[in-house]
């Protein structure tokens, strides 16, 4: 839209962040927010308090678990682990249906949020990448030397973590 003076406003894509801002905006319940304080507004509420509270509770529950209980019903093996090879953005599990058939993918978040033309590798079939990873893990697990070196590296990482945490703990106590 355009202001009376001709300045362009808005025009951004509606995304998850936009929805979150709408769902947490206290203006809808007749309140105003100034910095970290919330005050009664001089305008009427257009959303009932109990509905707003229920939405906030659900958002909080989703935040605690990352919504994982709800969002992984298709058992995405690599959820939260895959990054786009082209732009290094996170890839999330997605799917589409054709008739009764379900097609699963890992989708580049950059491409999904900013348009499919913005990434040369917008999606990959989930079954293929999951099978590739499982095969690689099996290959690693069947090589005793590689297993030994991996276990040794994990031990070194654990020792470094313990030293770092011990040092941090010492800095916290008087």
TrEMBL record:
Pfam families: Recombinase, Zn_ribbon_recom. Signal peptide: none annotated. Keywords: DNA recombination, DNA-binding. Residues 5-62 form the Recombinase domain. Residues 77-138 form the Recombinase zinc beta ribbon domain. The keyword Calcium does not apply. One of its GO terms (molecular function) is DNA binding. This is Recombinase family protein. It comes from Roseiconus nitratireducens.
